[in-house]
Specification:
This protein has 130 residues and is α/β, with parallel strands linked by helices. Helix content is 38%, strand content 17%. A four-stranded parallel β-sheet has the order 2-1-3-4, covered by helices on one side. Mean pLDDT is 78; it is low at 1-38.
């Protein structure tokens, strides 16, 4: 973020910065697609919940290119997981009645699976729909 804060848009450049722009070239032309600022990331956002660190790592590695993972965690779905505009994908976890009610009220999609392969397939389908 410090790098991006240092960038100055063309609208806010002073005479001195125009000189530097000519001397060093327009830095915005040098930023590649891989260097986009996170808030320009239009991938769907998700939360991953699982019963162990290995499962979380496996799922995250499989879906990182398709989605932006905003939170990961161990254990069952919690009210905190349901706060936000994202889908929740769970592996080997549960959702209690209170959280199920909250998910329905907020419209947060919660998808729970028993195999990692099913989670990855569900994320692929979610991305295709969004």
């Amino acid at each position: 973020l410090e790098f991006h804060n240092a960038l100055v848009s063309d609208n806010h450049m002073t005479a001195n910065s125009e000189d530097k722009k000519e001397e060093h070239g327009d830095i915005s032309n040098k930023i590649g697609d891989d260097d986009k600022i996170i808030h320009d990331d239009h991938r769907p956002t998700i939360v991953i919940k699982a019963d162990c660190a290995g499962a979380i790592a496996c799922i995250q590695d499989s879906v990182d290119e398709m989605v932006r993972v905003v939170r990961v965690g161990f254990g069952n779905i919690t009210p905190t997981d349901l706060a936000g505009e994202h889908a929740i994908f769970g592996f080997n976890v549960e959702m209690k009645k209170k959280e199920a009610r909250l998910a329905k009220e907020t419209g947060v999609p919660v998808l729970l699976f028993q195999t990692i392969h099913e989670v990855v397939e569900a994320v692929e389908e979610y991305v295709a729909q969004h």
